[in-house]
Amino acid sequence: MIGYVTFGTNDLERAAKFYDPIAAEMGVGRMMEFDSFIAWGQAGGGAGIAATKPFDGKEASVGNGTMVALQAKDRDQVKRLYDIALANGGSDEGEPGPRGEPDENGMVFYAAYFRDPDGNKLNAFLMDKA
């Protein structure tokens, strides 16, 4: 089981301004905080997200092909998370909408994609009736 996923940042204050409102929309807050590290989530809950300055002191960089998916409760929350991300320094990687064709149960992958201010890629998603 994943406890939390960490993104590197070169500006922890800027990362906090981006992730604080996203965490609030997901119903959680900061669960750990140090001078160079902040983690959002709920102890004993689902996986959290953290932002950290790299321990080796080098610049943080984006992992090509790396993405964290935030499970939303409904399509409205997908849209709210996308809007929150863009309003707090994030950039668009794909507006909210269905992706692909419905599966054999009539469910479709519904998602929005965005990047944080450091360029790390995230999405908000759910499986929903087509």
Automatic annotation (TrEMBL):
Annotated PROSITE patterns: VOC
A UniProt-annotated Pfam family: Glyoxalase
Alphabetical list of InterPro entries matching this protein: Glyas_Bleomycin-R_OHBP_Dase, Glyas_Fos-R_dOase_dom, VOC_core
Annotated VOC domain residues: 1-127
Annotated PANTHER family: GLYOXALASE FAMILY PROTEIN (AFU_ORTHOLOGUE AFUA_5G14830)
This protein's name: VOC family protein
